Amino acid sequence: MGSSHATKSCVLILLVALLCAERAQGLECYQCMGVPLGTSCPSVTCSYTDGFCIYQEAEVTEGSQRLKVKNSYCLPSCPDKSENMPSLLPSVKVKTSCCKKDLCNAAVPTGGSTWTMAGVLLFSLGSVLLQTLL
């Protein structure tokens, strides 16, 4: 019974340590400029220590035609996030959003960061393992 209790304690401590550990690498952001909205972008590690992932949608109107493109990148600070950021040209509207989680600057929100999913998986495995040791 003593070794079973010690094993449960070790598993619990390991799970807590893994869930609380900070990521070793920097912030991951998607990066691309002026691409159509449906286009996927490659991911890069943000070079700024405390940076933000930025997502922008730009709508350019010329005559009766509208073109929508996106920008995804990393910056050291979050730019003005006004709903329709004024631009130098009146025919351009830009919407900007900022975030600080890995790969959070996608056009469509993802199901969560890989660290969140890994934490949920570790917690589930740990609870199953603890129940089998009871």
CATH superfamily: CD59
**What count of domains describes the coordinates?**
1
Question: Which overall shape is indicated by the principal axes computed on the Cα atoms?
Answer: elongated
Radius of gyration: 22 Å
Low-confidence stretches: 18-23, 109-113, 115-122, 125-129
Mean pLDDT rating: 73
* CATH C-level name: Mainly Beta
Helical percent range? Answer: 25-40%
The tally of helices reads: 2
| CATH architecture term | Ribbon
Distance between the termini: 9 Å
Order of H and E elements? HEEEEEEH
Q: Strand fraction band?
A: 25-35%
DSSP strand tally: 6
The assigned structural class equals alpha+beta
Would you tell me which CATH topology applies? Answer: CD59
Main sheet: which strands, in order across?
Answer: 2-5-4-6
Give the biggest beta sheet. 4 strands, antiparallel
Summarize the structure.
With 134 residues, this protein is α+β, with helices and mostly antiparallel strands.
General description of the model:
The chain contains 2 helices and 6 strands, in the order αββββββα. The strands form 2 sheets. Strands 2-5-4-6 form a 4-stranded antiparallel beta sheet, with no helix packed on it. It is 29% helix and 31% strand. The chain has a single domain, classed as CD59, CATH 2.10.60.10. 13% of the residues are buried. Strand 4 (52-62) and strand 5 form a beta hairpin. It is α+β, with helices and mostly antiparallel strands and 134 residues long. Mean pLDDT is 73; it is low at 18-23, 109-113, 115-122 and 125-129. The protein has helices spanning 2-20, 114-133; strands spanning 28-30, 32-36, 43-45, 52-62, 65-75, 92-99.
